[in-house]
Specification:
CATH topology of the largest domain in chain A: Rossmann fold
Oligomer: homodimer
Number of strands of chain A: 7
Strand order of the largest sheet of chain A: 4-3-2-1-5-6-7
CATH architecture of the largest domain in chain A: 3-Layer(aba) Sandwich
Structural class of chain A: alpha/beta
Helix content of chain A: 40-55%
Radius of gyration of chain A: 20 Å
Order of helices and strands of chain A: HHEHHHHHHEHHEEHEHEHEH
Chain lengths: 326, 326
């Protein structure tokens, strides 16, 4: 068993080295920077060598590993949950942020102060963790994106799937550090990105342990427990991982502190942001967008020489041709 | 690099199979139960086969992986911190729980309501995470246990170190799920048990992200964030790991819900408790002890047929002969 696993891992590693491990990336600066960094930290004897157990790579999710327009997909999941729960909550028809959400006015929802947290509390609670996980998995594989018509699990970025696999083949441990809901992500990210649930850091609500007919369950409560965004991302990294990343990839101001925290460690570091500048193949938005605002983090990236990836110029393809690869 | 790592892993796995992987265990029922369980879940084609990524094993720390008498070692660390901080806090000399702690009256400290949380708030805050980690590492390797005279990092259980390595050699991912402080444990458990920081679940205080001279730091605050004990252990497993363990080892009532949560999953399961019944080589305590109380969880273990390990009968040796092995 063990021997078989090892030989498979070895075969994969050999293939990765023989072929281009990042075929969906153009041969532009970011791809070269990735190869250079990985070589630098994995070359034994080099002054920048990093032990495998310290090769921690953190990735934001929304806008970094999968798309986030016209609104974070988790909000679209909330909309479908609100619709499903409406018979028990007829008052939602006339109460915000539910009314705007039901009217598919995502602009209004995104603008509303506390709009998303209120929806999260209403739609992500009163359900036990196992059932919630099944619900999300079903939704993400069957519900369709409003403009592309793809199942949401196919709205992932092919170049990033390749990058995750390439890093893992080089001894990195890949983590998600996202403002999105931790239980929401954990149900499908292993299938989509090969990232196991224990390597997902996200926002979360409180849980209550209960015995139901003698069987323990964990009930999701409407109170927020942790918001994994902005400074919360540096806190989340310490809280859940307890080791500073050497590699961090984000796309918005919410990722700024994750990149700062990564950059502040000693030794070689890799910090990068995805710039959504491809209106044709994806979406184009940055400083003025309410979703995935890239403004202050962009300025800091320019000032500090962090990589700013252009989707248009640096990625050969955006989405996987069919279902996402693992 | 990769090839070398793989061949080392393979060599270790072969050695483990050729020799007895648990030499510090007597050939009694618990050892046999461990071998049977591991064979059952790793044998491909078996109806109880568990995929490697789902082989999650969780271990309590105090009283399960290392000793906990005369009081949790983290409290002894607090005592030394209180002594070090006393010049800045002369009022502690006449205020509880500090006064009892300074007088080494551990019985009084253990009895005091909120005694340990108050000490934790006072001694584990006002310091940044990196400095705290260094402080703990220095303490655990140099401070001596009051009765054995060993450095605390050598108060670990040799049979458990072997068990952790054996599980990992069989594709398990080993986690600590402890009521102890998460930052306290993370600094030394990789050295002691081979468990990396990201596989440690524990109690924690809140953190604040700050820029000091432009450099980001995480300041430890005196407010508790999460208590990973009793029902909190099931919650902590969901929060930090997000996947239900198939194997759980504890020693006290604080571990009861972790074992219940583990037992409630489908498929083969392994639940066990360490019973401290060896007054000669370690300590003997259970139902009436304030430290590591084993009462309700013991009754449930008997009722449900979980393993109750006798330190006296089932372990050939208790502590490692010299420094702990990795």
């Amino acid at each position: 068993m063990k021997a078989k696993l090892i030989s498979v891992a070895f075969a994969v590693a050999s293939v990765v080295r023989a072929q281009d491990p990042l075929p969906s990336w153009n041969d532009t600066a970011p791809k070269k920077a990735i190869f250079d960094f990985v070589e630098q930290v994995t070359k034994e004897g080099s002054s920048d060598f990093v032990k495998p157990e310290e090769r921690i790579a953190t990735f934001d999710n929304d806008g970094t590993l999968w798309a986030e327009q016209p609104i974070y997909f988790q909000v679209l999941f909330m909309r479908d949950r609100v619709k499903a729960l409406l018979p028990q909550h007829p008052e939602w028809k006339h109460r915000e942020p539910f009314a705007s959400l039901l009217g598919d006015d995502m602009r209004a929802v995104a603008k509303m102060k506390e709009g998303i947290p209120k929806l999260m509390a209403a739609t992500h609670s009163g359900i036990i963790t196992d059932e919630f996980s099944e619900l999300v998995m079903k939704w993400v594989t069957t519900a369709k994106h409003p403009t592309t018509g793809r199942p949401f699990i196919e709205m992932v970025y092919q170049p990033m799937i390749e990058l995750l696999a390439y890093l893992r083949a080089n001894g990195f441990k890949t983590f998600i550090v996202s403002g999105g809901g931790i239980d929401f992500m954990r149900s499908w990210v292993e299938k989509a990105y090969g990232i196991p649930p224990e390597q997902v850091v996200g926002s979360s609500g409180k849980l209550r342990f209960q015995l139901r007919d003698g069987k323990p369950v964990l009930l999701k409560l409407p109170e927020m427990d942790f918001v994994d965004n902005y400074a919360g991302k540096a806190v989340g990294i310490q809280k859940f991982i307890g080791r500073r990343p050497i590699f961090a990839f984000g796309n918005s101001d919410g990722d700024q502190q994750m990149l700062e925290w990564t950059a502040a460690g000693s030794g070689a570091r890799f910090m990068a942001l995805v710039h959504h500048d491809d209106a044709e193949r994806e979406w184009a938005y940055d400083r003025k967008s309410r979703i995935g605002t890239l403004d202050k983090a962009w300025d800091e990236a320019i000032a500090k020489g962090w990589i700013v990836l252009s989707m248009k110029d640096d990625w050969k393809t955006i989405f996987p041709p069919t279902g996402p690869k693992q």
